[in-house]
């Protein structure tokens, strides 16, 4: 999930959820699949990869090897 958050930060230029209190409400929203916003001109493939990295189910996230392969492509 961390890599997807970094991708969102690079895209938007802001820390994820910079405009929200970091409290139990945010934590619950994240558990209910709230995800950070991306910059307006972010390519769709980039967002899809970031969302895969932020999947609530760790088994659905790309492995390090898969991620390296995608980024090297």
From TrEMBL:
This is 1259_t:CDS:1. The lineage of its organism: Eukaryota, Fungi, Fungi incertae sedis, Mucoromycota, Glomeromycotina. SUPFAM superfamilies: Protein kinase-like (PK-like). It comes from Funneliformis geosporum. It comes from the Eukaryota. Gene3D superfamilies: Transferase(Phosphotransferase) domain 1. InterPro entries: Kinase-like_dom_sf (IPR011009).
């Amino acid at each position: 999930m961390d890599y997807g958050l970094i991708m969102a930060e690079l895209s938007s230029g802001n820390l994820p959820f910079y405009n929200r209190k970091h409290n139990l409400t945010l934590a619950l929203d994240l558990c209910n699949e709230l995800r950070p916003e991306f910059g307006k001109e972010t390519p769709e493939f980039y967002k899809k990869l970031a969302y895969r990295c932020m999947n609530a189910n760790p088994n659905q996230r790309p492995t390090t090897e898969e991620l390296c392969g995608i980024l090297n492509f």
